[in-house]
Amino acid sequence: MANVTFQNEPTTTSGELPAKGDQLPDFELVGADLSPVTPADFAGKKLVVNIFPSLDTGVCANSVRRFNDLAKEHEDTVVINVSRDLPFAQARFFEDNNIDTVAGSAFRSSFGEDYGVELEGSPLQGLLSRSVVVTDADHKVVYTELVEEIGNEPDYESAAAALK
User: Fold this and answer.
1) What is the DSSP letter of 31?
2) pTM attached to this predicted model
3) Active-site positions?
4) What are the residue boundaries of the Thioredoxin domain, all occurrences included (predicted)?
5) I want to staple 162 with a disulfide (CB 3.0 to 4.6 A). Which of 94, 97, 130, 143 is the partner?
């Protein structure tokens, strides 16, 4: 379990993010078109797994936009945006905002528990804590960040540096 805050109030997550050097744990999410999204779909590509509570908040929406811009600078990289938003909401947001990166809904998967990012307390209980996992092309974890205050943005520069 990890400690984070929501609006400066302490809360916890269900576990710990994968560690640097670990193989990225497998997952199956639901894509915007309702098809499965798995790491195997992006074999040979570096991954940025952008994890957040909901697209309905400004910080989460901004992180998707910022990582979308980052992906344009790295042709060998795929950004997978993960939340418990329904695939229909993700698809609408991506279309309205011209987002080219991958949407992955964790609404019917164990992703939050498997990655240790399900929030256990606070009004956001059950949603995913803001975090980032970056892998190399073999899907070995090279960088992780669990954002300590859920209302803050991730460290985009450090995530980008991990892709080099």
Assistant:
1) -
2) 0.96
3) 60
4) 18-164
5) 143
